[in-house]
Design a protein that fits this description.
Layout lengths: L39 E4 L7 E4 L35 E3 L2 E3 L1
Antiparallel strand pairs: 1-2, 3-4
């Protein structure tokens, strides 16, 4: 019997997302290679391995994002590129309060 090898960078069989990254919880593709986590934009077929990038501005802190307040406008909590917060703002689960 043959089975797909997940995390090898190849999309085969019933796999829909394989980013060639060993199973890191909530990072890019699911551990079973059957989809991707919320907060990630994963380019699927025909790219192998799947390329996943964080979605800045969706309100979900994912991957290397330091903060994400739900928009890409500077001075409303986070920096526009989600790399940090604006002084005077506090992050709590992706939501910023002054």
């Amino acid at each position: 019997m043959c089975v797909e090898i997940c995390d090898d960078g190849l999309i085969v069989g019933t796999e829909t997302c394989d980013d060639n990254i060993p199973s890191i919880p909530e990072w890019g593709c699911f551990a079973d290679c059957k989809g991707n986590w919320t907060g990630w934009d994963c380019t699927l077929y025909p790219i192998e391995p799947t390329v996943c990038t964080e979605i800045c501005g969706d309100g979900i802190i994912a991957g290397n994002e330091q903060c994400d307040d739900g928009n890409t406008i500077d001075n409303l909590g986070c920096l526009a590129d989600c790399s940090g917060n604006i002084p005077g703002w506090l992050c709590e689960n992706g939501t910023y309060t002054h």
